[in-house]
């Protein structure tokens, strides 16, 4: 399948993911392209990732992972990062999560909303986890909720009906792609900013973020003519 170029007819984007590091496995390369082009991108994290490091208690891991996420965002030109403080590892799909995300959509007023893979499986067939699935499905619904003045009245301000695109990265079957070759070093820097988390994984594959990201970006680029390195998205017109 040949991937299509990611649409460029938008000015403001909101990235909504479950955990610190979720966007950095490739998606942040696209963010670097967008901020270099002068687009406004902000991040919303549903949790602080406090349950993500087995050797560090949540009370310590939360602030540590928040700091790493802010550094990862700075590497790709993003200054505005918010956290909702839903509990890591047990994120529940439901009205509270939809309300919280819809409120930020109304306040930030994005035309593009980006989230992570919320399908049941990752590319290659590995099972996804509940936090990712619940967050992505809540993001999908919150894009609609934000535009309905009778849903969550008063949350976040006036209704916002101009979300034009929802995009998910890390998906099994992408439809669109962004050429990240010119900003690949910034994509690597954003993933490398999660030093404590990557070290705790104890995974030789993740010991070298550049090699890991390059292999995935080369695979996507095989479906995206003209690019040597690319990140894929499934695009859902709203």
From TrEMBL:
Any GO MF annotation of the entry: hydrolase activity, acting on carbon-nitrogen (but not peptide) bonds, in linear amides
Coiled-coil region(s): none
Annotated TM spans: none
Domain of life: Bacteria
Pfam families (alphabetical): PIG-L
SUPFAM superfamilies for the chain: LmbE-like (SSF102588)
BP-aspect Gene Ontology terms: glycoside metabolic process
Keyword annotations: Zinc
Protein name, per record: GlcNAc-PI de-N-acetylase
Lineage: Bacteria, Bacillati, Actinomycetota, Actinomycetes, Pseudonocardiales
